[in-house]
What does this fold into?
Amino acid sequence: MKNPEYFRGKSITVVGLARSGLACANLLHDAGARVSVTDSRNDRSTRANSGLLRPSGIKVELGRHTPGFIRGRDLVVISPGVEQTALPVVWAAKEGIGVISEVEAAWLLCPAAVIAVTGSSGKTTVTTLIGQVLKAAKKRAFVCGNIGNPFSGEVKKLKASDYVVLEISSFQLENIRSFKPRIAVITNVSRNHLDRYPGMREYIDAKRRISLNQDSGDYLILNSLDKESERIARATAASVRFFQPSAGLNPNQAAVLKVAEITGISRRTCLGVFKDFKGLEHRMEEAACIKGVKFINDSKATTVESAVWALENTSSPVILIAGGKDKGGDYRKLLGPARGKVKEVILIGQARKKIGRALRPSLAVSESDTLEEAVDRAFSKAAPGDCVILSPMCSSFDMFSDYEHRGRVFKNEVLKLSKCKGK
It folds into this structure.
């Protein structure tokens, strides 16, 4: 590990005991810190994770936060889902205790070159493709962050000659201090997470923190078609490279090509990876075809723009299942692409009333109490040749633990429907 002495002897509380909190607590413990963990939840998942903490010396509280787990600490490390208004963050500020993200903690110990990817949409695909391109070029690459394993969980495996390809959210960027990727990519910026940020300016400012500590020896890759890119480019000290889609290349592939150019990987290698890429689970993933009706799992589509992309890339008539926890998106953007293509929109979750107001009377809209009920209704409304797409436009946290959980529930319900109705 880099900086092996940095955390040794420090008293640190990790807030949150999901995947990243668990990995971070164990990493800090192994680095010689005195670690405590606090999580407001006390459910099967957090109890299971508490059993995976290093057996010696890590104190845990579940189901609450108490000041005693913050007072007197040298540092507080927060997981991605922890907001700035959470009690441990507030208490730390009152005590004058520094607060950093799990990504920052991992970065301080990471010896490898980091390629970090953020953006409103496309970042999971871009992160995955960069990792595959590096591996195709015989480079050792670890793909982590919001995709797959937490950054903290990979640090002890890394060498200076390795690459970390890190998917990173605006939430994780809020509490960085020295995090400095060799290459940073912002895929695009559109209305998103306005349930967390006061407005678009604050959201954009959080995203561009990915380049906060970069200098002229680092690279920032931006979307030339994104209206915010010029402002972001003017504010960075990094060397800026712009990408844009071209004949035969979509925006995600164009961004990956820029990373390849910087790392000395040939275009031919990239094109080979693109050709063989089968897509991602929960992103326009075909779940089944039942009596001529296709079911598509697009649970990863947590923005309006992602759902628009799904519609624009589907030629069949569509029954759209959408809804969840509102992130402040402008649902009216769906109206143009949906006109003449979407037969009905079936809404679920907390945002269903708001989405319904935006789409009626231009589109046929109904509501369901559960995703399972929505799948059944969609099949009853569909005809052979139609496509049922789960493309929620919202986060999953009102009804599910994450978008993956939501996608699995959708696929399980489709599987049950297939067994009942036959092929």
